[in-house]
């Protein structure tokens, strides 16, 4: 298993970590999967904001 080590100065944006779905893929997700996706993306956004690596407006996907 490979480990990725980033320096403390590495720039990370929401776009670097967001998972996106096409409209067709999104329609194939059930309600629980959609809810989990939204919760995870909000958590990632919150972490990036708390680190000063993103703003709330940059987390809109």
TrEMBL record:
GO biological process per UniProt: regulation of DNA-templated transcription
CDD domains assigned: KRAB_A-box
Pfam families: KRAB (PF01352)
Domain of life of the source: Eukaryota
Record-linked InterPro entries: KRAB, KRAB_dom_sf, Krueppel_C2H2_ZnF
Residue stretches making up the KRAB domain: 12-61
Annotated PROSITE patterns: KRAB
Protein name (Swiss-Prot/TrEMBL): KRAB domain-containing protein
